[in-house]
Amino acid sequence: MGLRERKKVQTRNALIDAALELFLTRGYEATTIDQIAARVDVSPRTFFRYFSSKEDVALSAPADSQDIFLAALAARPETESPYTALSQAMRTMVATLRGKEPEDAARFMKARQLVEETPALLAGQMRLLMENEQRLVAEVARRQGTDSGDLLPQFVVSVFTGLGMICYHSGTQGLDVMAERLDDVLTLADRSLRPGWDLATADTSPSATD
Amino acid sequence: MGLRERKKVQTRNALIDAALELFLTRGYEATTIDQIAARVDVSPRTFFRYFSSKEDVALSAPADSQDIFLAALAARPETESPYTALSQAMRTMVATLRGKEPEDAARFMKARQLVEETPALLAGQMRLLMENEQRLVAEVARRQGTDSGDLLPQFVVSVFTGLGMICYHSGTQGLDVMAERLDDVLTLADRSLRPGWDLATADTSPSATD
DNA sequence: TAATTTATGTCACCTCATGACAGATGACAA
DNA sequence: TTGTCATCTGTCATGAGGTGACATAAATTA
């Protein structure tokens, strides 16, 4: 890895840290790009060469965690049912986060806290989730052997996304708490959902029951 | 109702219609406030006296539909279980929308289509949803007789929000399709969820099973 | 060292959004 | 009808977010 690339990573991390620091102390809206850039000693223009927007820098850590989740899901064995694969991937994500450098973990926690207290960022994070949602639906449909346009995969992903949101919401208090909460939520889900609910059955068309 | 108020309503609707029209033809980002204001023959400054932002005007119709839902939920009898109340309120909302003036319905549909094809607005709509989420959780907790911080009400609302998203997603093709989709989704939910899943039981604390 | 690539800074520009103030217009009472 | 008052509106000025163009400085490669 050359000097050039190392410097880029360094600048990028410095921008993220400076931004999170300012956002958390002065507030997200009250902080300007100029202030962030000034703290890292780069021009404001350079900021936008690293991040496409103010929101982008704030959500870079959450976006990373999403990527981790996607990767974990892809690594789950084909034999697992959709919901099992999703929830195991979630556990893997939390574990991966906990295994990271303290520096990275701190960034993640700061971003979590910031997002929680900033409605605009909460919305942005939801957008990130929704952008992945279609990929998730496609993956679930593949595992179920059904079509992506079918209702069931959408339903499964939708339920799971909801679970993820609840965990994420509790992540403010640290990754340990988040891991516990994940267990609780999954337990609750097991108790609420019928066995095999996430698997396609012979009669997929709804019309007979009512 | 005086002339002044009538004019205000008129201007407001004109701004919404002009905005939706331009957004749908030229795209959301490509359309400027100046263009919207010019089409209605008001100053750009006046636009911001009716709407707090560009997003606000685009999401005014969705925001209205949310209000309808909240009102419908409040009107549900106390005896209904949380999930039943939520889903019936949803049905009421769709029915209310279908019963509106064609002009209003058209606005709603245009907004739906616009939101669907504009990621930034998708995020905004999610924000609207999340703003209500806490109220929903509180309402469900009240009906369950549990605490608002408890996991179950959050879970119920989360699942339901997911269902709502699926319906909403299909609302692009018209309110009739959306009503059908709602039925399908609720049927699927009934098939997937255990009876009484949305009611608090004696043993709420998870620890025994695993 | 010379040539090439690439990151950065500077400058200009546009759009979104807000505050301040003056003028126009509807509301209302005499 | 007229005068007063409240309110809506337009104009102006300002600041922040975001982008394109171009020159410069630095790192890579030969």
UniProtKB/TrEMBL annotation, chains A, B:
UniProt entry tagged with the keyword ATP-binding: no
Gene3D superfamilies reported for this sequence: Homeodomain-like (1.10.10.60), Tetracycline Repressor, domain 2 (1.10.357.10)
Domain HTH tetR-type: 9-69
Gene Ontology MF annotations: DNA-binding transcription factor activity; transcription cis-regulatory region binding
Keywords assigned: DNA-binding, Transcription, Transcription regulation
DNA-binding region: 32-51
Signal sequence, renumbered to the chain: none
Protein name: HTH tetR-type domain-containing protein
Species lineage: Bacteria, Bacillati, Actinomycetota, Actinomycetes, Streptosporangiales
